[in-house]
Amino acid sequence: MDLPPEELQFLSTIDLLKESISIPKRSPKTFYLITLILVFPLSFAILAHSLFTHPLLNQINTPAGSHASQWAKLLVFQFCYLIFLLAFSLLSTAAVVFTVASLYTSKPVSFSSTLSAIPGVFKRLFITYLWVSVLMIVYNVIFLAFLVLLVIAIDTQNAGLLFFAIIVIFVLYLVVHSYMSALWHLASVVAVLEPVYGLAAMKKSYELLKGRTRMAFWLVLGYLSFCGVINGIFGAVVVHGGEDYGVFVRIVVGGFLVGVLVIVNLIGLLVQSVFYYVCKSYHNQGIDKSALYDHLGGYLGEYVPLKSSIQMENLDV
After folding, report:
1. Which of 64, 145, 164, 190 satisfies CB 3.0 to 4.6 Å to 201 for a cystine?
2. In this structure, which long-range contacts are made by residues 144-150, counting pairs with CB atoms below 8 Å and at least 24 apart in sequence?
3. What is the pLDDT of residues 179-208, one digit of tens each?
4. Which one, of 295, 315, 314, 313, lies nearest residue 305 by Cα?
5. CB 285 within 8 A of CB 292
6. Which residues lie closer than 8 Å to 114 by C-beta, 6 or more apart?
7. DSSP states of the chain
């Protein structure tokens, strides 16, 4: 990011995307390795999940396949998938956020230094994720309740209740889900770059989002839309297209879609990193680069406690 910190607040959504996409050019080898070793497995797992669960579900749906062992296989696979997804999601976030911040502070960047920093970053991200999970559980319970209400409205043919349920579900999914996603991603960056994590990082994220909620909404909506389209095409052609498409076509399309999702996920991680600096600039919360430099060094065993803080607003402590 070559722009002065005070000018970041004036970036439009398109400018933010352009700024994010240009970052890997400053350390192409590092981002190439991050993409290959962390982002690619994450993207492949997201798409391959349906490819592996579809045959298991087909076996369960057959009279001979409804045995408990089939359900056990499915549950074990789902559990392993979620663990893998969580691990690589946090690892990818840690690597990209740390690398972008290192470039921002002119700290030497290499893939080995990024890997060395991940253990310290991972714990902070995981605790933050646990707090986000609590919110997501509450959100899902409310969402499920209105889905039940929707079914009741359809069964009773209650037009007023049906309309109310549809509106609430639409708002919950489109607005609330997008906001919570933005809150989570921004809190992840806060947990890496500031001396707070967990619930404190989420509170900080909430404060930073004020005034930039609309930009966050469009960024999250755009990301989810791209992922939705990619997953939809993958499901239609690769997973369920056996009767309409040959093996070669399915392999080519599947490989292409994995590549596209890798790019989308990498850009998404870069965007969330840059968006943090945009929010800080918008709230006139400058970042002391020397303090941030030392904070990043703490993940590498280089940290020496300083009185200064990453946040300029805390320098008077």
Report:
1. 190
2. 146/172
3. 888 999 999 999 999 888 889 999 999 999
4. 295
5. no
6. 30, 34, 95, 98, 99, 102
7. --S-GGGGGG--HHHHHHHHHHGGGGSHHHHHHHIIIIIHHHHHHHHHHHHHHHHHHHHHHSGGG-SHHHHHHHHHHHHHHHHHHHHHHHHHHHHHHHHHHHHHTT----HHHHHHHHHHHHHHHHHHHHHHHHHHHHHHHHHHHHHHHHHHHHHHT-HHHHHHHHHHHHHIIIIIHHHHHHHHHHHHHHHHHSS--THHHHHHHHHHHTT-HHHHHHHHHHHHHHHHHHHHHHIIIIIS-TTTS-HHHHHHHHHHHHHHHHHHHHHHHHHHHHHHHHHHHHTT--B-HHHHHHHHHHTTT-----S--SBGGGTT-
Q: How far apart are CA 6 and CA 247, in angstroms?
A: 53
In tens, the pLDDT along 221-276 reads 899 999 999 999 998 888 887 677 888 888 999 999 999 999 999 999 999 999 99
Amino acid identity of residue 256, one-letter, is: F
Q: Can you read off the two tokens belonging to residue 258?
A: 């994995």
Residue with tokens 């800080």, as numbered in its chain: 280
Q: Which residues pair with 287 in a beta bridge?
A: 311
Report how many domains make up the chain: 1
pTM: 0.84
Cα–Cα distance, 163 to 155 (Å, whole number): 14
Contact 186, 269 (CB under 8 A): no
Looking at this protein, which amino acid is placed at residue 303?
A: Y
Range of the structural domain that residue 185 is part of: 5-314
Residue 233 sits at the vertex; the CA angle it makes with 180 and 257, to the nearest 5 degrees, is: 85
Lookup: tokens for 191: 């947990």
Chain mean position to CA 169 = 22
Scan for tokens 């349906």, then name that residue.
50
